[in-house]
Automatic annotation (TrEMBL):
InterPro entries xrefs: F-box-assoc_dom, F-box_only, Galactose-bd-like_sf
GO biological process, one term: glycoprotein catabolic process
Transmembrane segments: none
Taxon lineage: Eukaryota, Metazoa, Chordata, Craniata, Vertebrata
GO (cellular component) term, any one: SCF ubiquitin ligase complex
The name this protein goes by in its record: FBA domain-containing protein
Sections of the chain in a coiled coil: none
Domain of life of the native organism: Eukaryota
A Gene Ontology molecular function term of the record: ubiquitin protein ligase activity
Length: 158
């Protein structure tokens, strides 16, 4: 995921996944620091090849997914917010939010998936705004926080 974002603590770092995530092309992750690190991306559905009539009339399912986890020796927090936006990029037509319970220190270091399917969301959707954030819970300098990988936005035409 590209896009802007907050660089809390020591910012973001790209690392190898501690545990592989099945069926993913890349086995790297973004690792957060000791204050909230935020990443966002705005996906222009028209530039991606969809068209207004398709989005307004058929309203194809828009599927989002994110994988996140902690490092074994440090706890973390994670949240995600995905919004379907209108042409002005400000009108929120539909929204999904999830805030995780904190993962404690000395955990299994496995990834957890968060996913959601937007259906029958209404007319006017032109953008998907994808935002996730994470941090570690012990306030250690470095990159010991939430690991985020395989972020996905997919439009399913049936």
């Amino acid at each position: 995921m590209g896009g802007g974002g907050g660089r809390g603590g020591d910012g973001w770092k790209v690392e190898e996944n501690g545990f592989p995530v099945d069926d993913t092309p890349a086995q790297t992750c973004f690792t957060t620091s000791f204050h909230w690190c935020v990443k966002s991306q705005l996906v222009d559905l028209l530039k991606e090849g969809l068209w207004e009539e398709l989005l307004d009339t058929y309203q194809p399912e828009i599927y989002i997914s994110d994988w996140w986890g902690a490092q074994e020796d440090c706890g973390c927090k994670y949240s995600i917010c995905v919004r379907l936006l209108g042409a002005n990029k400000r009108t929120v037509i539909a929204e999904f939010q999830a805030n995780s319970d904190a993962i404690q220190q000395w955990n299994d270091a496995q990834y957890h998936q968060v996913s959601y399917r937007f259906r029958q969301y209404g007319r006017g959707v032109r953008y998907v705004h994808f935002l996730h954030r994470g941090k570690e819970t012990r306030f250690r300098p470095g990159h010991y926080g939430a690991r985020i990988t395989n972020s996905t936005v997919m439009v399913k035409l049936s």
